[in-house]
C-alpha cells in the first residue's frame, strides 16, 4: 500500500512538471491537481490496459508510438472530468503524456512494491544483486 501512495506522489510530481513545461496544460488549484492525479491513476490502472489490449495491432505497427496517443487521450479525458485541470488540445495532451510517462517511468523504476527504494546491480558473474533501503 505504501508503494501505491509513493507512486501516486510520483505521478503527481510528473503531472505538475508537465503543467509547468507544456503550454496548454494548466492546474488552477491544489484540489484540482490532486483530483486530476487520483483520476489519472485510476484510469491508468483500469482503462489503459483495456485500451492497450484493444489497440494491440496499432501498437505493434507503430512500434509502440500509439501508446503515447492512448496516454494523451486519457490525460485529455481527465481534463474533461476535473474542473480546474485544463488540457487545451491534442498536442498539449500528447506532450503532457510524454512528460508524465517519462518522469513517472524513470522514478518508478527505483520504487519496490513495498515502497522501498531499490537499486539492482549486476555482479561480474552475471547475477542480479538487489540493494534495498
Structure description:
The structure is a single chain. With 133 residues, the chain is an alpha+beta fold. Helix content is 65%, strand content 12%. The strands form two sheets. Strands 1-2 form a two-stranded antiparallel ribbon.
Please give a quick description of this structure:
By secondary structure, the protein is α+β, with helices and mostly antiparallel strands. Helix content is 65%, strand content 12%. It has one domain (2-132).
Give the averaged pLDDT, no decimals. Answer: 86
Low-confidence stretches: none
Order of helices and strands: HEHHHEHEE
Q: Give the distance, in angstroms, between the N- and C-terminal Cα atoms.
A: 17 Å
Main sheet specs = 2 strands, antiparallel
Neighbour order of strands in the largest sheet: 1-2
Write down the overall geometry. globular
In total, the number of strands is 4
β content, as a range? 5-15%
Q: What structural class is derived from the secondary structure elements? A: alpha+beta
Proportion of helical residues: 55-70%
Counting structural domains, the number is 1
Radius of gyration, in angstroms, nearest whole number:
16 Å
- Count every helix, treating DSSP H or I runs of 4 or more residues as helices: 5
Amino acid at each position: 500500500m505504501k508503494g501505491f501512495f509513493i507512486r501516486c506522489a510520483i505521478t503527481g510530481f510528473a503531472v505538475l512538471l508537465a503543467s509547468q513545461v507544456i503550454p496548454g496544460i494548466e492546474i488552477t488549484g491544489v484540489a484540482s491537481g490532486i483530483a486530476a492525479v487520483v483520476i489519472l491513476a485510476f484510469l491508468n490502472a483500469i482503462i489503459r490496459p483495456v485500451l492497450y489490449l484493444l489497440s494491440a495491432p496499432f501498437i505493434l505497427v507503430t512500434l509502440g508510438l500509439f501508446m503515447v496517443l492512448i496516454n494523451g487521450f486519457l490525460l485529455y479525458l481527465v481534463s474533461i472530468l476535473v474542473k480546474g485541470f485544463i488540457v487545451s488540445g491534442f498536442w498539449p495532451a500528447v506532450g503532457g503524456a510524454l512528460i508524465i510517462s517519462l518522469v513517472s517511468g524513470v522514478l518508478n523504476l527505483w520504487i519496490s512494491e513495498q515502497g522501498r527504494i531499490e537499486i539492482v546491480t549486476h555482479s561480474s558473474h552475471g547475477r542480479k544483486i538487489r540493494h534495498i533501503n
